[in-house]
Design brief:
- The complex is a heterodimer.
- Chain A has 27 helices and no strands.
- By secondary structure, chain A is mainly α.
- The termini of chain A are far apart.
- By secondary structure, chain B is mainly beta.
- Chain B is globular.
- Classes of the chains: A mainly alpha, B mainly beta.
- Chains A and B meet through α24, α26 and α27 of A and β25 and α7 of B.
Chain lengths: 493, 547
Amino acid sequence: MLGLRPALQLAALLLLGVVGAGQGADVAGLARQASEALRARDFEAAERLYRRLAVLMPDEAGIDLNLGLALYSAGKYDAAVGSLGRFLEAVPDHAPAWLLVGMSHQKAARPAEAVFPLGRAVELDPENGVARLELTDALLRSGQPDRARTEFSVLTARNAADPKAWLGLGLSCAELSGRAAAELERTAPDSAYSRLLLGRAAAAQGRLRAAFGHFRAAESIDSEAPGTHEAIAAVYRASGRPEWAAAELAKRSAPEPCERRLPECWFEAGDHGRVIEWAEREGTPKALYWRARAYAGQAEAAHARLLALPPSSAAYQLAGTIEDLAGNPREAAGSWREAVRLEPANPNLRAGLLRALRSAGQDEECEREARALLRRWPDSSVGRFHLGDALRRMGRVEESIPLLEGAVGLSGGDAVMRAALATAYLAAGRGEEAVPHLEAALETGEDAQLLFQLSRAYQAAGRREEARLALRRRSAVVSAGSPEPRQGEIAAP
Amino acid sequence: MPRTVLPGGPWLGSALLLLCGAAAFGQIRFRDVASAAGVEFVLESGPTSRKPMIEAVAGGVAAFDADGDGRPDIYFTNGAASGSLRKQGPAQWNRLYRNLGRMRFEDVTEASGVAGRGYSMGAAAADFDNDGDADLFVAGYRSNVLYRNEGRGEFSDVTQAAGIVSEAWSVAAGWFDYDNDGALDLLVVNYLDWDPADDRYCGDRDRGLRIYCSPTYWPPLPNTLYRNRGDGTFEDMSDASGLAGHAGKGMSVAFADFDLDGWIDAFVTNDTEPDFLFRNLGDGTFEEVGLLAGVALASDGVPISSMGADFQDYDNDGLPDIHVTALNRQTFPLFRNQGGGLFEDRTARSGLHGLTVSRSGWATKFADFDNDGFKDLFVTASHVSDLAEEFESASYRQRNAVFRNTGNGTFTDVSGQAAEFLPAAHRGAAFADFDGDGRVDAVTSTIGGSAELWRNVSPSRNRWVAIRLVGTASSRDGAGARVHVGGQVVTAGSSSGYASSSLVPLHFGLGAEPGAASVRVVWPSGADQIVDLEGLDRVVTVLERRR
């Protein structure tokens, strides 16, 4: 992200252009005052002055650029996008303006909308590392991990000491690994490869009996499934049965030559790129399995590089993300706190902290942090959402509703924020108002919790038949859920 | 008659009167008298380092008149050795304390024959054989027991003869007359398909912190419905009634006729699963309508760890409402009956969301503790995990709570001024006017700690009346009868709270200047009876008039 200092330097450059236009002493004086206001970080005053300048010089596009910068610096991202958009109509190839538009979307938690302007910024100024980092981050956060991985690879090649690049590369690879695993689970849920991956995921979370069950199931489907005995042996060791682990490993047949064990052999040699290249050409369960594992291997390697660098906000962000995924929100909150401490001007880190606090049920701290975020970025949909949601969870429903309404509006209708607003409406006895938000939130996919709420909202609106229908949809979702089968003991080999 | 002249002149007298007036309205006070009363019960959960979850959910309590002397006695269920799940000595016996009057009790467990066997969980008192004395069902882990009261407080185990031997893990049970034949039937609430040999490790191995596992790891069980044949035996109607088709992780049960169709319905709390509302269709079958009625889940749609429940009319609109306890961050939901078979989640609007979101609750009871005509709430509190502090922002030992009903649909937390509640691992609770002074008292159990007997010493001058029902065509207890006094309605029955039971006269606070002069009873038999109250501040017996 572009910090305040470079932003001010950029402002100073832009101001030169405006003053140079020579519109008279009043204008020059106003421009000077505006520049000083920016330097003094009095963004409200800067905004006021640039608005006056815009009235005085309606045809001067540069005023819109400066106004956009002031608005961006004041945390008024929507207004900044508008002002910068007017400027770009007049000067379409201005890389810094595209960058600011993209960053405004990024800070307003709209990564998908940030991709195009950031892409233009990179196109116009390929050497701009900030623009490329923002673009890759937007790609990753908007569900385009493949492109993000490519861009992050470029960044790590350019600067191997950049922690954010390594973090982004690792997260992109992790996302790609997760996608391959999901595809395997969807297309071949009964394959040995699917069970192997499920077993690995369970083992990583410490669910040893579940892991054991999956590994044994994989073995019964395909006795030659790769790494099964080793995985089972690892479960035995973690359960305090090293003698069973040894017996399990003894069941392995003699290893085949490397060329007959592809791509397993490449994977063992750490050649994840080759495994991915091979797996991308195949469409089999085996290929999906190895694609998932190879991307996971690349993610691990990238994160190892990150952790080898001096402590950084990116390293704590990684730790926070991992703790989040492992279901340890209190520990995650600790890591995010450190990340915020190292980089307080990064709203994404603050958003990570808020998410962890929300999961940990630390509502009072969540309220404090959200208020702090809103003081700095008053138009932040994320800040309003977390403040509103924390208040709702603490029972202050009436206070929460305007905040959540604001968050939904600013975010352009984010599904999670809509769901939180609907919950507040229902708790306040305003179920009818929850209906459109729940219907919109459900457009992203069926969800048992939302369908129950929709049923209650329809009931409140007197739409009884639709309420019943929503419950039927809920039942279908619940029935389709596949609860983990009952797990037996971790038995001897 | 000479006028009393207060020292200090008329102004001081007025001030004192004002103070008294303030005290009379809206003050709830309890004092723990367990030790002085001779109630020294300790709930032994049999804690071990293996942390089988059965240790965390024990603790049902019952208040009922075991010896027929008109005074409510106290029965505590108790645990067992965690490994064998057998009682290995007197410390693990269930205990019956006989009420001697004047808030004094004596332990009569041995003489009464109700020490129990196995790991006991819940208690449900009722006169199932309609012989005029209260019997007792004790739910437990593969050890349900039915005790028939042989008179004068002596009980015999008739489980086998009654045909209700069970191999399930039952936590609670409740007596109700679902077919309105005058013989009380039994709904047994079953929890999980769990075996003590299942030594699952939950917690943090790295820190050596083993905790009780979540129930999500084990399959749910359906509840069991036993129909009382009226001859001392029961018939398992779980399949025929439709109940067997609904597996949950049951913790408690409360009954009321929520749709006023004359057939008693059942609300069952489930741990981490949607709660059940079994609507009685009147033909021997039930329809589960919890989701449609809006009581299966709180308004956010997320299943919670529902523990205890009560099913009474808190807002005096004549319709029974539901209150549920759960763990911290889940709130204790309040569902207001809107009529037409629908409820609305009133947790936030009643103020209970904010009052309960940081608490974990077990028992809950709607009762008018200050006799002002509005039912308040008493909640026992504790987290389920004895290592809660290590994993989340919560405390294991918590203080009980009293929420006063303000009369306008909201509750206020009066716990701080109501009593010196101390943090403990509270579980079940029963409620009765143990000292006969017209104020509802409470008795609670505590895992690994002393039971608490909360004598209600509220400085209220409000009036009251308690109605003791004697059914003739209906069951002797009158279970399921709807009793109206003024604008208030109470559904007769003993099940409430967490795995607990209070078989006592129905208590009505009437305020300082009551206008009510009669009581109306709508019996399960269909009889609709109005009886004039010839006086207040007393227990009035209403004998069911035959139609």
